[in-house]
């Protein structure tokens, strides 16, 4: 037997991690030890949670808990197959029908995640002869779907409708389908996509219009119907993507549109074809969540009340919360922009020591020089909790020289 020491072929990954540590942007996962709530326990420490996507507090809503338990008792813990073989349960169809009615469209297909919904849809409906006109700050799942499609990608400046139209005009005589795609709400800055103008541009050049509404589902529009409802552009967006993992409180993503679009995705969207379907408890939970959106609009009102208060106070403290060389937040996502990655990560660590969970975000998730703490309001934060969090943010911000 040879006694030669084997060279580790993955040593380059260790080198890259060491580089991150040297830059001060390496992180370790914080572990949640109880429920995802406004105040919860990470790594044994009770903190005010400003990092969650649990906008409406539905992760612990009694109606959702009950629905999950009942479905588990009735149907078991798993579906046992992919949707196209033996894994389409009646409860999956009920969820898709419920979402389609809620979003005022013909049909809906549910994916295992919002990422899978975006990547699977873009890569399924386009090919290498086609074109994608994409906002420069679109979500990673859109970018990956665009790459997988092998279509030619034209990027337009963030929220710049005129530039999007220029890109469309530059390819108007080229064969192939054209797809205009934008986030409804941009996840790092919290600003809203200019859907009416993009719809105009898409219609002018006969392009497909697609919107990723992950961070506006449950937040914007009537009872949380999203940006299409917020702007009243019903019938003008051909492909609507949403998530079941944020305001809805559970897990998954969905695509809404025409019956033909959804039937095509049943046949051709690879994440749908090759991933086991949701456990029945998840589908039941999501059905219950849409009932709550209809029945408890006061949750969304409270979310926005907290958002307005928190933004105003952060600005009064002197934090850069967007609008200075970065987009201005218009939603419960409010970034505190500090610039340098090392400082953002230090800010996050010291906030945690004070009693706040607020994650540092640096390159490559955001551009170099635009590292930040991303804060997200929820409907379940109390005024006292937010006041306490603001005091801690001010204290740590002053200590680190982020505010005066």
From TrEMBL:
Keyword Ligase tagged: yes
Pfam families in UniProt: Aminotran_1_2
Protein name: 8-amino-7-ketopelargonate synthase
Family statement: Belongs to the class-II pyridoxal-phosphate-dependent aminotransferase family. BioF subfamily.
Organism expressing this protein natively: Koribacter versatilis (strain Ellin345)
Keyword Acyltransferase applies: yes
Cofactor: pyridoxal 5'-phosphate
Pathway in which this enzyme or protein is active: Cofactor biosynthesis; biotin biosynthesis
Record PTM N6-(pyridoxal phosphate)lysine, positions in chain: 246
Keywords: Acyltransferase, Biotin biosynthesis, Ligase, Pyridoxal phosphate, Transferase
Role played: Catalyzes the decarboxylative condensation of pimeloyl-[acyl-carrier protein] and L-alanine to produce 8-amino-7-oxononanoate (AON), [acyl-carrier protein], and carbon dioxide.
GO molecular function terms noted in the UniProt entry: 8-amino-7-oxononanoate synthase activity; ligase activity; pyridoxal phosphate binding
Subunit structure: Homodimer.
Single biological process term from Gene Ontology: biotin biosynthetic process
Catalytic reaction annotation: 6-carboxyhexanoyl-[ACP] + L-alanine + H(+) = (8S)-8-amino-7-oxononanoate + holo-[ACP] + CO2
Stretches assigned to the Aminotransferase class I/classII large domain: 45-392
Family matches, as PROSITE patterns: AA_TRANSFER_CLASS_2
EC number annotated for this UniProt entry: 2.3.1.47
């Amino acid at each position: 037997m040879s006694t030669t020491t084997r060279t580790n072929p993955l040593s380059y990954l260790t080198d890259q991690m060491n580089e991150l540590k040297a830059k001060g942007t390496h992180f370790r996962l914080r572990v949640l030890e109880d429920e995802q709530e406004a105040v919860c326990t990470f790594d044994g420490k009770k903190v005010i949670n400003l990092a969650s996507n649990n906008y409406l507090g539905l992760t612990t809503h009694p109606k959702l808990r009950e629905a999950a338990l009942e479905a588990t008792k009735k149907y078991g813990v798993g579906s046992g197959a992919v949707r196209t073989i033996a894994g389409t349960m009646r409860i999956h169809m009920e969820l898709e029908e419920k979402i389609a009615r809620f979003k005022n469209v013909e049909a809906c297909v549910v994916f295992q995640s919002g990422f899978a919904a975006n990547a699977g849809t873009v890569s399924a409906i386009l090919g290498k002869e086609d074109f994608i006109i994409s906002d420069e700050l679109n979500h990673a799942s859109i970018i990956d779907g665009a790459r997988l499609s092998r279509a030619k990608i034209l990027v337009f400046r963030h929220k710049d409708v005129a530039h999007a139209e220029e890109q469309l005009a530059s390819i108007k005589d080229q064969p192939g389908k054209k797809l205009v795609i934008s986030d409804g709400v941009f996840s790092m800055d919290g600003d809203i996509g200019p859907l009416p103008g993009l719809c105009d541009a898409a219609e002018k050049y006969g392009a497909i219009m697609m919107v990723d509404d992950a961070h506006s589902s449950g937040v914007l529009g009537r009872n949380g119907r999203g940006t299409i409802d917020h702007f009243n552009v019903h019938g003008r967006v051909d492909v609507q993507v949403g998530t079941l993992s944020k305001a809805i409180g559970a897990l998954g993503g969905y695509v809404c549109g025409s019956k033909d679009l959804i039937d095509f995705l049943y046949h051709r969207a690879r994440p749908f074809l090759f991933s086991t379907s949701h456990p029945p408890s998840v589908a039941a939970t999501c059905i219950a969540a849409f009932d709550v959106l209809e029945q408890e609009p006061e949750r969304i009102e409270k979310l926005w009340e907290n958002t307005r208060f928190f933004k105003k106070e952060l600005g009064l403290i002197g934090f850069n919360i967007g609008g200075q060389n970065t987009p201005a937040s218009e939603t419960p996502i409010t970034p505190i922009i500090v610039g340098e990655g090392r400082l953002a990560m230090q800010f996050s660590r010291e906030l945690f020591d004070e009693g706040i969970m607020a994650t540092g975000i640096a390159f490559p998730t955001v551009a170099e020089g635009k590292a930040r703490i991303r804060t997200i309001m929820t409907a379940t934060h109390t005024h006292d909790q937010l006041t306490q969090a603001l005091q801690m943010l001010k204290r740590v911000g002053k200590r680190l020289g982020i505010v005066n």
